[in-house]
Structures are given as C-alpha cells and as structure tokens.
Amino acid sequence: MGPAFLHSLRFAAVIAGTFPTDTFTFADRATQELVARAAARHIAQDSSVHDYEAKLRYRLSFGFARRKWGDPLPVAVEEQDATIAWQLPNDLRVDLLGRRSVSQLQGVDLSSTFSQPWFVPRTLGDSIRVFGTNHVPSRAAPHPLAPGADRYYRYAAGDSIVIVSGGHRVTIQSVTVTPKHADGSFVAGRLWLDVVTGEVARFTFRFVGTELWAEPDGQTAKDSASARRNSISVNRILELNADLEYALQNNRYWMPYRQVIAGKVSVPLGIDFAVPFEARTTFDDYEINQGRAVVFDAPFPRDSTARRRNGGQIFAARGRSPGANRASGDSLRRRPDSASFRSRFRDRTGYLAAGGRFEIHRPPADSMRNYKGWGDSLVLAGSDEDHRRLRQAMADLARISETLPPEMTGRPRFGLAWERLSDLFRYNRVEGTTLSGGVRLPVAIPFTTLYGTARFGLADQRVMARLSAVRDAPGGQWIVAISRDLQDADPFAEGLTFGNSLRGTFTGHDDGAYLLAQGARVSFETSAGRGNEVTIAGRAEDEESVSSEARAFIPRISGADGYFPATDPIRNGFAVGPTVRLDHAGPGTSWMLDAEGLDADGAFAGRLAGQLRFKRLASGWMTARLSMGVAAGADLVPQLELHAGGLNTVRGYDFDVARGDALWATQFDVSRPSRSAVKLVGFFDMGQGGMIGDFGMAPFLSGTGIGVSILGGFVRADLSHPITNTAGRGLRFDLVFGGAR
Predict the structure, then answer these.
(1) E strand or H helix at 37, and its extent?
(2) For the whole model, what pTM was predicted?
(3) What is the CA radius of gyration of the chain?
C-alpha cells in the first residue's frame, strides 16, 4: 500500500470516528466505517499495479422472451478474442484476434465493432457510464464511493462471505446502495467490499433516475420537463444493469475478472414480450508488473480517429483513455446539473485514468474469421454457472429497484394499457373486429400490477371483460384473472394471438378452437433452466359454445364470400380442471408437452398432447415437426377434442377440417442451407384426426406447398394445396407471424 492510500485511510478513519452516524445516509456506524475505508481506497486508487497483460473474451447475445423474467436461449451470439496491455497512468492497447458468431435466425449475423474500449481495464472513476467513453447513458451517474457521493446515496451493510486464495483469507461484505433523490442520474445496487482494505471485489448495479436518457435542448423549464418525460419513457422500455467482478491475483491484486452489461427491452403495451441482451467480458492469464511498456503504432491524434491498414483498423485516442480522470474532492458536493456535470466530467466518466491513451487494433475480417485459438466450440447457451450467477444478481437488483419510486426505474403507473399484445388488437371468426380499451393500476405488492380490459365484438355484438392481477417476479409469473372472454380449447390452436388476428384480417383463415368462458383462471409460469418453461394453471368457470359470426374483409373484396368455417359445439355448463404445460426451446430441437383434465357439468375428460420439432435435419436442408395427442372422455366433453388442419398440423386445409379424441401430424420443410434472411421453402404435411375407435376410418390428410420465409420463419407467406381429400378445397394463401403472439 502506498503512502497516499495510508494517508487517505487515516483521514477516512478520523472522519468516520469524529462525526456521529448519519442514520439517514448510513444504516449504522459499522456501515459508515466500511464505506469510509472503501471511499479512501477509491480516492487513492491502486498504484501497486504498474502494468499488466491479459487475455480477453467478449460475448454479445440477445433473445426473445414471452415474459419479462423468462429465460430463453439466445437467438444470436457473437464472441471476440483479444489480448490487452495496460500501464499507468492509463495507457491501453487492445489487439483483437478472432471473431465467431451463431444465430437461430437465418440472415441474422450479430456483429459489433468498437472504436473505444468497452470494458473497465482497472477501476471505475468518480462517475459511471458503460461501454467506454460513449454517452450511455446520456448523463453519467456519480460513483457511490466518489467524494461527496453520500449526498446522493444511502448505504446499508449486509451479508459477508470469506474467500480463501492461496491460504490467504479475505472477508467480503455487501453494502446496498440506493439513491436519495429521484431527479438525476444514479445507480442502485450492491458493492462487495474487502472488509480490511476497502477494495471493491464486486459491484452490481442498475442505472436509475429521471434524467438518464435525455438532456434539455435549452435552458428553459419547458426544455427540462420535456427531457425528463423522454427519459422516463425510455426507462419504461429499457432496463440497463451492470455486474463488475474482480478476482484476487497473486493473492494481492484485485484485477478485473468478469464484466457484464445486461438488460431488457420490453414492449410497454403488455408484459408478454421482452428482448433480454447481455454483453460479457472475461479476463484471464494475467501477467502483472512485468515492466513491459505498451507499444503504440498510431501517431497521437487530437481526437478519436480510425485508420485503415491492410484491411484492418486502428482506433486511437489521447487524453480520454478509456474514461475517468480523478475528480476534485468537492466535485459532487452539489446536485450535478446536466450541462455542467457532463462538461466538467467529460474526461472523468468511466474508468481509472489520469490522462492516458488507447489503441484498438482490429485485423481484416477474414483473419478474424480464420482465427484458430478458441480452444472450445461456440454454443448459444454459454456457461450454465455464469448464467445462474448473473440471473441471481439481476434478481437481486430487481428487488432493490422495487423499493425505489416508480419514475426512477420505469415501473408503470396508472394509465391506458393492455395486459397482452393480443388484447390490443383482436380479430377472429367469432367476434370479427373488436373495439377494446384497457387500464393499468399498480399496487403496493412488489412486482404486481392490476389490468382491466373491456372489448366489444362487432360481429357477435358481445361485451367481453377481464380483470387480472399479474405478478411478474424473478421467481415466476402469477396471473389471477376473472373474466368473461373467449378461450382457446386446443393445445395446438393459436386463435387468441396477435399473429392469428393479423392472419384472419389479411387471409381469412382462423386457427382457433373457441369457447365462451365466464369465471376465474389462475396460472403460474416459471423457468426451469435456459429455454425451459413450466406452466401450471387451473380454471373454474361457466363454459358455453359460440358460433362463427364474422366475415373476412380482404377475401370479400377479392370475390370470395368471406365466411369462416363454423365453430364446434362444446359441453355447456360449469367446468373446473387443471393444466400442466412444459415448453423447451433448444438450439437443435424444441418440444411441448401439455396435460389437461376437465370436469364439465359432471362429465370428466383428460387430454395429453405433445409436439416435437427438429430444427436441422439432412445437413440443414430440412426441418420437421411431429404433433400427437390423445384424449379420454372427449366424446362427452368436446372441448378437449383435438383438431386437424391448419398451420400447426396439416397445411392446405382449414383448421378443424377433422377432429376427435386422437391426432397425429407430421410437417417437413425443405430449403437450401444459407445465411440469407429471405429463403424459398417447400413443404409437405400429412396427418389424421378422429375418434380412436374409428381411427382407421379417419380421413388421411396430406398437403404440399411453397413459401417465402423471412428471418427463419419470423414472418412467412405460404401457398398450399391439399393432395388427398381435395373436395371443395383449392389453393390456399397464408401469412405466418412467428414472433407475434
């Protein structure tokens, strides 16, 4: 430890012991003393590391989730390997070596290029942004250990752990940090501190505040209010978290180990769709204090520049290497105003520095692609242990954020909203076009929101309504609803989805098996590992048959009559029963298993259905889907019958062209393997649906066709025609919206 640090530590000890504990800022005296040691360490920084070299791996991924806390397999992943060299004061050189990527969406190649360092090479400075010196977020947040930060944050010490490294025992204690104010740009989270030295071992935080993402265009109060509204709006859509971990190297130096920027982009109209993303940087193979100077190849520019050489790139800068100069001791003694704060801390945001220079060397693309030093294979899932650790950290941040005012975190308040995207727009053969309105009401229970929806069908002239309490928490999603509404009766049906409403509007086809339900439903959905979802549900309601009342508009203007096929009758009366559903989405296969029991007006029936999909067969030329189901008692309780025909069983036929208590169907898609976003696809389907006792007499259905697929089926247009049982059936046009549920 250098004399500067010892002086700062003595100063902090005097300060901590002289004044009484500020219970508004610090939970107790022990917390105050621990934070004082950490603040002293932060002021002095660590000059014992003069230089180091290390290996670096960067991994970027994103996915699609049906709910905010879903745990999907990534849709696309990119990794880059690099070596880094760093020396005091803050000179940094990054040499990129290789790049690889994989994607589930054809035509999507996730690729990132950096002109500035995207990681923390040593220690954070007095204010915080992510991804180097880029303005993300727009306004930097004060570091909780910066001078004067106690004016903006509260601190509470918590659990402690003991780690052993080479026989050396280190006690690490957590400190929860929350902002005192809503207006501004801040972080909320946990610091994990070395109890003896005050060194930061881990810092997990979420960006919060009403002024994160927008700054006033002018100096008037109207400009400030507009910027605040815009920033709060972004908070409702974007959640941004960081997890910075350090590891004890050589039993002495706390060095960067793993740094993750993670978050979610959510659809504000409903809770049934989110895009989680993750940028992970890991460090390995350290060589510390070897006395090797960082060698720069580019001349010193005045500002950031990019220069091409042999197809590669060199990004260089001086005076802003990557981030933060040390701020003066009173720099945070006042609430930082957006303009002066950014100007004053222009070179003081991000990372440890006192000047410094950086260069990023990127070789030509073919050289990056042919890199052979990976040592492993690229997989979509990544490390299960790393993923569980990050999920726990993000859940912890979510619980901390729930204690903050809603405007700081983007939690919605009372207003116009719909529980699901499919509630916003619905069109089907029973109701036709619907007019709907929805309202959202937050409650005092963490993670919980009340939704109310009313809908009027122009075709059936019915008023539908739904009141639901939704608790979408890290452990799972609870939905308790009382409603008078349509329900889908078939496990393969997609009638009440946004995609089916679009398909019905434009093509006149409806893949829904409907009944009218009045009563209560409760469901719990949780993740059981990446790509695995478990749903347990129950219902107690009065159920009755509905009829097909609507006519499709687009087919009518092209000369067709526009009438939809009739709906099936069910057993009317009071019904009660449970449902258990398992969904798995893997890189090569996905499957679904659905088990349901139902007592309807004194008659009991049960049903088991499953679907298995192979995403890559015949060296990538083919995909296949197998659907099977069987029901007992469906002759008495028709709502548990299975329906053949339509997009999910046999294309070329209308949904429900055949039905009964047994079903099987296979679907084969053939296309040339390529990375193109738009592909021509040929397909062939076959299957049967009918009663088990007469299954040999059930009509054999087969159909074929051709389609155009965009982004691996995210959007698709098909022309299909039946091969067998063609009476009264001809060429059929369908639109498929795989991402619109």
Answers:
(1) helix 29-44
(2) 0.85
(3) 30
